[in-house]
Design a protein that fits this description.
The structure is a homodimer of 320-residue chains. Chain A is globular, with a radius of gyration of 18 Å. Chain A folds into two domains: 9-53 and 153-305, Rossmann fold (3-Layer(aba) Sandwich); 57-147, Rossmann fold, CATH 3.40.50. The longest helix of chain A is centred in the middle third of the chain and has 17 residues, at 154-170. In chain A, helix 1 (9-19) crosses helix 3, helix 5 (83-95) runs parallel beside helix 6 and helix 9 packs parallel to helix 11. Chain A has 14 helices and ten strands. With 320 residues, chain A is an alpha/beta fold. A six-stranded mixed beta sheet of chain A has the order 1-2-10-7-8-9, sandwiched between helices. Helix content of chain A is 44%, strand content 15%. The interface between A and B is medium-sized, with 29 and 29 residues.
């Protein structure tokens, strides 16, 4: 893969160095029973165990620590459904600057509490993309803070790519790499890192069938948005930006869509067999392999479990 | 510490080599928010992420792979409240030999299912120590299988000690090491490894107040047993054997007892903040530090999270 495009593997390597002091190098876990279920050899990069409970800490840290002193002094602001907001607040606290987080008024309490615990200043908005963007712009105008978009940002994309780079540094001979896709920041970074390090790798995006706008977009050749995103995977309700659409169009081999039942089944298997807390959105990339939706039998498969922020008092597991 | 006693650090180093092909080198996780709550720097050795979901896999593997060919051919048998049984079944399957597991008829279904999934042959007994031992003896007499006691066994103790040895190999400068105590196998192995590698370390056993027989035994100078063990920590209901009592008397500095509420609070914090599934017994060793029951402020503390086998459909977390 050429380095003509930006962000590229060099940007990801630079991000690795920049974020290392402020993030966890998360463990790579394996499970014999999940290998049996999938027929593949699965290597799970556990971003649910990342600082703030999601991969979003990588991109946010890369963006915040790339600001000049002058920019940083003004603080940062973002529209976010939760995990990016928490991560941005946490990264801003590491740098000692303020973070304003715009959140829809129907966000789970657990995600709002996390943003506040990290010192973020929450401004609630209506649960529409327009209201979020308008509110962010208003806060930006009032405070002078720098807007850090959750995915439509090269530094964010490069930061998210560090998870795949770490996994490939540890397990080089992967055949397939799977990451979830929503706005496309993680999948963009993952595909740049994966194909940069190992050109023959197959990169697959995983998406709920009930929020399959990325699948439809790549098929149509232009960005498709949906009226409704009715999925338990509440972190996967954004749609692609031109920047991520261009990267995914160039580098992603397949988008695999999974049902709500498949998401919950994958989530339960991860909790039961691997003993880790994974949120529904975080379980989506495991679902294609565990439900044998992709051609992975006999292959070595890297999977990014993207997050673990879930309300423990309201789990989708019913008594047997 | 002298190597005159057995098992000693050499036995643990030998166990490390023996079990490595069949077990996970589990990750060591840290959490800034749990450090803040405890006032200490906590290093969690995640044996909940071990093969079979508990540290018991270490001892069982060491014992099974220490058998001669002739012994191994006869198979193995054990009385067990669950995790040791599952681990023995799994280790036996690795060696290609049968395992008979004696379980009380009130064992959680999730633990019985695990033993069966690993190919163990379950024989149910009454939930008394006597019934378990009698039933194990009967199976042993009938089949010729080798009895592998869950903790009253030097090879088991040496195997359990490998978790502490791994953590100290990775984080050498610990001030305190905490492990749960029930029959005393894990705490024996932990204290032998810890004091062998770092003589000045303080070793603390953690135990439910409602099953504080080890606390009482070390205080009294002889083994004390209780009539009732009324605790949510269902893996910590055994009492010491002369072998483990002798080791703990020599090497353990303190036993810290924790309430049922403190156990559940510690468990919830581990799930929420660290995103890992820990069973109540596995959370017990975190409870003294998280509830500031011990003098750990400002110290570097190793903690063995011993297991993660829990019924996900019946959790002790109520809605907020």
């Amino acid at each position: 893969m050429s380095n003509d495009f930006r962000p590229n593997l060099n940007d990801i390597r630079e991000a690795q160095r920049r974020i290392a002091p402020h993030t966890h190098r998360t463990p790579v876990l394996t499970s014999e029973s999940l290998n049996e279920i999938s027929g593949a050899k699965l290597f799970f990069k556990c971003e649910n165990l990342q600082v703030t409970g999601s991969f979003k800490m990588r991109g946010a840290t890369n963006a915040v620590f790339s600001l000049t002193q002058e920019e940083a002094a003004r603080g940062v602001v973002t529209p976010s459904s939760g995990n990016h907001g928490a991560a941005l607040a946490r990264a801003a606290r590491s740098r000692g600057i303020p973070a304003w987080v715009i959140m829809p008024n129907n966000s789970p309490m657990v995600k709002r509490a996390a943003v506040e615990a990290y010192g973020g200043k929450i401004t609630l908005c209506e649960p529409t993309i327009k209201s979020r963007q308008d509110t962010a712009a208003a806060v930006q105008a009032r405070t002078g803070a720098i807007l850090i978009h959750p995915y439509d940002n090269d530094l964010i994309i490069a930061g998210q790519g560090t998870a795949a780079a770490e996994l490939l540094d540890e397990v080089p001979d992967l055949d397939i790499f799977i990451a979830p896709v929503s706005g496309g920041g993680l999948l963009s970074g993952t595909s740049i890192a994966s194909k940069g390090i190992r050109p023959q790798i197959r990169v697959i995006g995983a998406e709920p069938k009930n929020a399959d706008d990325a699948f439809l977009s790549l098929k149509a050749g232009h960005i498709v948005t949906l009226e409704h995103y009715d999925t338990i995977a509440d972190g996967l309700r954004a749609h692609l930006a031109p920047r991520t659409f261009a990267i995914l169009s160039r580098l992603v081999d397949e988008v695999s869509t999974v049902t709500e039942a498949e998401i919950v089944a994958a989530m339960k298997l991860l909790w039961e067999r691997m003993k880790i807390v994974v949120e529904p959105s975080g379980a989506v990339p495991a679902a294609p392999a565990l439900n044998r939706r992709i051609h992975a039998v006999g292959k070595r498969v890297g999977i990014i479990l993207s997050g673990g922020n879930v309300d423990l008092t309201s789990l989708p597991f019913s008594a047997a």
